[in-house]
Amino acid sequence: MAEWRKVAKAFALGDGHVSEREVDILRKALFADGNISKSELDFLQELKSNAKTSVQKLDELIKDCEKAQGT
User: Fold this and answer.
1) Rounded to 5 degrees, what are φ and ψ at 54?
2) Distance between terminal CA atoms of the chain?
3) What is the spatial distance between Cα 14 and Cα 37, in angstroms, rounded to a whole number?
4) Spatial separation of the C-alpha atoms in residues 49 and 44, rounded to whole Å
5) pLDDT in tens, 3-48
6) Are 69 and 41 in contact (CB under 8 A)?
7) What is the pTM of this model?
8) What is the pLDDT of residue 5?
9) Among 25, 39, 40, 46, which one has the highest count of C-beta atoms within 10 angstroms of its own C-beta?
């Protein structure tokens, strides 16, 4: 199976834009285990920087993940 980061990036950046629906799916998946890893937070930040455009919800998700990690 492909690395989860590559698959998720391809999914979220297929059209260059991170939509609300994509952020909702990411939020559900990332918080499913109640723990946000550094790798998961790094992924979101990388996703944000690689996106041509994104919704405000992505910024909110990143902030929530930072809080959950205590950073």
Assistant:
1) -155, 160
2) 32
3) 24
4) 9
5) 888 888 888 899 999 999 999 999 999 999 999 999 999 999 999 9
6) yes
7) 0.89
8) 83
9) 40
